[in-house]
Fold this sequence. Notes:
The chain has 535 residues and is an alpha/beta fold. The protein folds into two domains: 2-324, ABC transporter transmembrane region fold (Up-down Bundle); 341-533, P-loop containing nucleotide triphosphate hydrolases (Rossmann fold), CATH 3.40.50. It contains 17 helices and eight strands. β1 and β2 form a beta hairpin. α5 packs across α10 (301-307). It is elongated. The site of adenosine-5'-triphosphate (ATP) has 14 residues, from α12.
Amino acid sequence: MFELRPWLALIFRRPGRLVLGGLLxxxxxxxxxxxxxxSGWFITETALVGILLAAGVQASVNLYVPGGGIRFFAxxxxxxxxxxxxxNHDTVLRLLTDIRVTLFRELAAANRAGREHLSGxxxxxxxxxxxxxxxxxYLRLIAPTALALVVILLLALxxxxxxxCAVAAGVLMVTLLALVIATLAVYLVxxxxxxxxxxxxxxxxxxxxxxxxxxxxLRAAGRTGRHGxxxxxxxxxxxxxxxxxxxxxxxxxxxxxLLVNLAAILALWAGYELFRADVISGPVLVLLPIAILGLxxxxxxxxxxxxxxxxxxxxxxxxxxxxxxDHPPIExxxxxxxxxxxxxxxxxxxxxxxxxxxxxxxxxxxxxxxGITGRxxxxxxxxxxTLAGLLQPxxxxxxxxxxxxxxxxxxxxxxxxxxxxxxxxxxxxxGDLWRVLEMVELAERFAREPDQLxxxxxxTGSRLSGGEARRVALARxxxxxAPLLILDEPFTGVDxxxxxxxxxxxxxxxxxxxxxxxxxxxxxxxxxxxxxxxG
Length: 535
Ligand SMILES: Nc1ncnc2c1ncn2[C@@H]1O[C@H](COP(=O)(O)OP(=O)(O)OP(=O)(O)O)[C@@H](O)[C@H]1O
């Protein structure tokens, strides 16, 4: 339950809306109960008068007052239901916006260590199913429980006023027990299985996406069948867990409904005694039992919602764990006058692992170009991430000018070439884009495309070769107005001749900019003033 606290705080940020929404639900419920009770009273009254008339006894019934009441409740129930749906769904959509915006804000602020432990499908789960689980807290859980309690108290009051104190106490006890069984008891018996099922569902979703993404590799290794069978076993396990949860929910729902019906029978039986003692009339006798039966309208939704509470809490736990509170953004101060970058006694280390690089000292004057080289695994990318501000230095100090960073992994978006390039500089004109494409030797290739700058690059640049995608990513960074560029393996996948030609042009393009380029050897670097070997 503790896990829900930050999300409940978000939900209760608009108390006025929640109260008004709750009152509309209450109006719907009371109209329904009023309609049932008054109809029961009316049917009984007319039946009794009919029997009396048949027996030749003078009797009459007032058709107008109860008829008017029934019409009123029928209309008020429809209107209240309509308004309640519109208003509460609007509230839920606002809640969803609050939750999503909070989540996105925290994710955007997180540094790399705060994000990289999750795979793509896991992020998708956070942003879709986990958020959706939370947005139902108010409408499916909080509001119906509170209203069921209000209706139970009103029914007890009605029993007290129409019948007597003992009947009121009996109705209160039995219906409260029904409420506890439909809520707390369901939660207690399903919370572990429901939470496990939610974790399993996420693991299965991740495994299915991996299966689809790695289908080529699985096929080449002849493992598609085995991997598919494993996935099916996981799915069966998850379904079995779900069936267990559903069956427990079902049993509790049945017992809780039984208790509500028992309360109605109790009221009927006690009312009959009062009727025989001439304390109440026949139609009043049926009023309370029928009103109690109206309670089932709100009670039926509760067991299912409380059966899912375990998985909602699991969603909240995942969201709390994976949002950025432990990983605040890294602030890098400006360097002293006359320097573009200064690193002193820098240590690079992943939390929980041995240091990758220690005692790194660097001082770059504006316009200086430095290469960092090292064998595979020596820590080049980790140093680049640290210099760029994606990884918190384990020790030492770092100061630098604003920078643009080409990461070792080529990241392109499923968008047009223009949109991908403009991420480097949103004010770049088409002329600027063609010039930078010329620089990385892609202008001719895209000039031949029918859509030219509007050519679609596909998911992660899938419509390009590895070397082409790399050059688009490089072009995007080269467009940036930042005075410092950090390029990690800028020429991955680019042949030696093309690399040499681009390097030559880069010298002019980077005029006045400070450069840190990282690669396994000097031949994979653009021209630099000096080279720092790592490891
Ligand atoms: N997220 C991480 N958590 C823990 N260790 C990591 C992480 N990322 C990298 N490492 C480790 O840090 C070391 C340096 O990795 P890094 O990617 O910086 O090397 P590199 O010099 O860029 O290698 P390459 O030339 O192969 O890209 C490696 O031993 C790697 O296993």
